[in-house]
From TrEMBL:
Alphabetic keyword roster: Cell membrane, Membrane, Transmembrane, Transmembrane helix
Domain Metallo-beta-lactamase stretches: 557-757
The protein's name: MBL fold metallo-hydrolase
SUPFAM superfamilies in the cross-refs: Metallo-hydrolase/oxidoreductase
TM ranges: 32-59, 271-295, 301-322, 367-388, 400-422, 434-457, 464-482, 488-514, 521-541
Domain of life: Bacteria
Membrane disposition: Multi-pass membrane protein
Subcellular location: Cell membrane
Native organism: Dermabacter vaginalis
């Protein structure tokens, strides 16, 4: 969730319960233009015709108000078309450039943090160091050409043992370097696997433009502010010190992963992200003392505006902060001249302005969450508070009703979007936010005072940070308790289906509360609720995959696939997590495993082996010829390294090994990929044609492009019904392999990851070839049953 009760203050508390003013409302225009802008950046500015053409038609209506709205819609669509077209062209060009196999990308960046050793939760993560950075120039070099970066983009650099250059840990935050390597893009973030790097002074000297110098100056200045707070609050425990910086300046560098996860589970992450709450507290921090000294309103507003500008400069360009800061402008103008600006209209103006200024920004998750939560607080919190008072028979006071209503509507507005990131929710999110708000606002204000005092004499600021740190400690306790209680991890349907389902339930609950006194409405809503409960409940209760020929297990970022014919079952890879593999085997009603195929020895493919005990202990196992680690893990199985060509039958199931043909070939092809031993192991992946009466599957492990191309040249690949896509759908694919296989169904085993899997280029390639794409991160566990009419796909999230 990205908003809080204080966000309402940042949006103008006067927005609560405001009577609509006469004039031209911008709300319907924002509702139409905002999604059209997001779609236009993705698909091209032609999408904006959906705004312009209806507007042109409405100009013929006689009603003057309708014509005014229509004229504004046409003007907005035309004005935004240019920026949207440029953003679309830049993103399309960048994606096409990065999609070229083995293309080298060169960037010049300023480090936003000192490189640190990542916490390796995945054994195959070979990163030595990782750091986020900002580009110091608007373009990067991709191959022989130059490409523009999204205006709000950032770059994440990853160093491995293979990276050439100095020790990355010698770098400090703010240093400028030139890095080269292989890049992938996810949204506005560019992930660069660094192959070589060097310190650079080019951006500091004559080649640096004026805008870059200003940007670097602000970056250095804000880093100095954060360093000052960190150094002065260093006497606090690490988590509390990091949260003090987070609550005041929106930077939680140093916060440990467990605490971050606990805050995310409890819905408290927004409390340490700079947003409308911080804008409101900054304004109050500046203006309330002036009010106490009798300073006039206009002077207070000007001082508050200056305070907000300084605060935004100190924090940086966070999407939610930019939204709140721009929204404050019309509100403060109204305050300066003595009239009230409708807060929801100001929010609509903010959205439309950012659509014009930076179309790429308005599709960022942080921006979407911020706008959604703020709108919900402004538009729905007062009606919900009224309902709570009525339902309680007046036993709940007005203030308490608002305290309950604000986080409830904000959480409801954010939940469908958050489900696209993580398909679960917590029943404790709203109570945790209510409890946290009691301490966060005063702790943040005291932290602001500490920052000012620290600029005068740092030791004098320590008492302020001690008080702020105490609030941070309470916040940590609330997060830990909220994440450990039963009901903190309620699984929900994944992907767009889950988001739409939850949104529908939220709307249903809202209608129930709003129209609860109308008997016919109550009956209709009750009927819909019963249907939803029966359908959803049957899905939740039923854990049996039923009849299936192939199952793709949902094991997170990894592969685990089951195939069977008759009484014979083959397991291809195990994923990284024994518990998740065991859950899949149980839900698929697997009684025994005849053969385990470990395509290659990386933990995302063999980490689940400990689950294969008792009835699931495999009778035999196949490994690739470079695998020396799997056999000791399977003391009861007959383990054999296999090479192509080889065909085995298990009842009606035929397994034809088509790759690798030798260990040396895997090494040579892997060396050509430029990744050393890691690529050699990927290119050692056992790839098979699995056949049964009526269907066939091509499995590809983690084969890299060169190995895939060699497989095509070998002539053994034939048309199949479906393919297990190589390497979790990474961008490194050989399209000719998929063209040769002609599969109508493509399955990707993938989970949450920092590698950009599956890559948009790969998804586009598969769709262009006519394949229906199924992926475990979006669809969960998938059971496939071949019927005379075709494949029946049963998602089991």
């Amino acid at each position: 969730m990205n908003a809080s009760p204080c966000d309402a203050l940042g949006a103008g508390v006067g927005g609560f319960g405001e009577k609509p003013v006469r004039g031209l409302s911008l709300i319907p225009h924002a509702v139409v233009v905002w999604p059209a802008t997001i779609a236009g950046v993705a698909f091209g500015p032609v999408v904006l015709l959906a705004v312009i053409l209806p507007g042109l038609l409405m100009l013929m209506v006689r009603d003057r108000r309708v014509r005014a709205h229509a004229l504004l819609a046409v003007a907005l669509g035309a004005a935004i078309a240019g920026p949207v077209g440029r953003a679309h062209a830049a993103e399309l060009s960048l994606d096409e450039a990065l999609s070229i196999r083995n293309v080298v990308t060169e960037v010049q960046v300023a480090l936003g943090e000192q490189p640190s050793e990542p916490r390796k939760t995945r054994a195959w993560d070979t990163a030595r160091a990782r750091a986020s950075a900002r580009p110091v120039t608007p373009t990067i070099s991709v191959g022989a050409g130059k490409q523009e970066l999204p205006g709000n983009g950032r770059i994440v650099l990853t160093w491995s043992e293979k990276t050439r250059g100095e020790n990355p840990f010698s770098l400090a935050r703010g240093e400028i370097l030139t890095a080269r390597g292989y890049a992938e893009r996810d949204g506005s973030t560019l992930f660069l696997d660094v192959t070589e790097w060097e310190r650079s002074k080019v951006a500091n000297e004559k080649n640096e433009g004026f805008a870059s110098r200003i940007g670097r100056f602000l970056e250095d200045w804000r880093n100095a502010r954060k360093d000052l707070v960190r150094e002065t609050s260093a006497f606090l425990p690490l988590n509390e010190s990091a949260l003090v910086v987070g609550m005041t300046l929106g930077d939680v560098t140093g916060l440990d992963k467990d605490t971050k996860d606990a805050m995310a589970t409890s819905g408290l992450t927004h409390l340490v992200a700079a947003s409308g709450a911080n804008i409101a507290l900054t304004y109050a921090f500046v203006t309330l003392p002036l009010l106490a000294f009798g300073v006039r309103r206009k002077a207070r507003v000007v001082a508050g505006a200056v305070g907000i500008v300084v605060y935004v400069a100190a924090v940086g360009s966070e999407p939610s902060l930019l939204r709140a800061a721009l929204m404050a402008v019309p509100l403060m103008i109204g305050r300066y001249w003595g009239f009230r600006t409708p807060a929801v209209n100001a929010l609509a103006l903010t959205v439309l302005t950012w659509c014009l200024l930076d179309p790429s920004l308005v599709g960022e998750v942080g921006f979407v969450l911020s706008v959604g939560a703020t709108w919900a607080i402004l538009a729905l919190s007062v009606p919900l508070a009224d309902v709570l008072q009525q339902v309680s028979g007046g036993r709940i006071s007005r203030n308490l009703a608002l305290v309950l209503a604000v986080p409830t509507v904000a959480q409801a507005a954010c939940t469908p979007v958050l489900l696209l990131l993580a398909p679960e929710t917590s029943v404790w999110a709203v109570p945790a936010n209510i409890a946290a708000e009691i301490v966060v606002a005063p702790a943040t204000v005291v932290g602001f005072a500490g920052i000012l005092v620290a600029h005068v004499w740092p030791p004098l600021a320590m008492p302020f940070f001690a008080v702020s740190g105490a609030g941070a400690h309470i916040l940590v306790l609330i997060a830990q308790v909220g994440s450990s209680l039963p009901g903190a991890h309620i699984a929900l349907p994944v992907g767009a289906t889950g988001a739409l389902t939850v949104a529908g339930v939220i709307v249903l609950v809202g209608l129930t509360l709003w129209l609860r006194k109308r008997r016919e409405v109550r009956l209709a809503i009750a009927f819909v609720a019963i249907v939803l409960l029966v359908v959803g409940g049957s899905r939740l209760v039923s854990h049996d995959a039923g009849d299936w020929d192939v199952v793709m297990c949902d094991v997170g970022q990894g592969d685990a696939m089951l195939v069977r014919a008759g009484e014979h079952t083959v397991l291809i890879d195990t994923g990284p997590d024994p518990a998740k593999l065991a859950s899949c085997l149980d839900r698929a009603s697997v009684e025994s495993i005849d053969l385990l195929v470990v395509t290659h020895p990386h933990a995302d493919h063999d980490g689940g082996i400990p689950a294969l005990e008792g009835q699931w202990a495999p009778k035999s196992a196949w490994v690739c010829p470079l695998d020396t680690s799997t056999e000791p893990k399977l003391p009861r199985a007959e383990v054999e390294a296999v090479l192509a060509p080889r065909t085995e039958t298990l009842g009606a199931l035929s397994l034809e090994v088509v790759w690798p043909r030798s260990a040396e070939e895997a090494r040579v092809v892997g060396a050509g990929e430029g990744g050393g031993e890691e690529s050699a192991l990927n290119d050692c992946s056992i790839s098979m044609l699995v056949k049964a009466p009526g269907w066939s599957v091509l499995t590809l492990g983690d084969l890299e492009p060169n190995a895939q191309a060699s497989l095509v040249r070998s002539g053994v690949v034939e048309p199949v019904e479906f393919v297990k896509v190589a390497h979790h759908g990474s961008r490194r694919q050989a399209p000719e392999l998929y063209e040769r296989s002609r599969a109508s169904l493509a399955v990707i085993g993938v989970g949450e990851n920092a590698f950009g899997h599956p890559h948009p280029r790969t998804l586009t390639m598969l769709e262009r070839q006519g394949a229906v794409v199924k992926r475990t991160d979006a669809d969960g566990m998938l059971a496939f049953d071949r019927t005379p009419e075709g494949w029946r796909v049963v998602p089991l999230p």
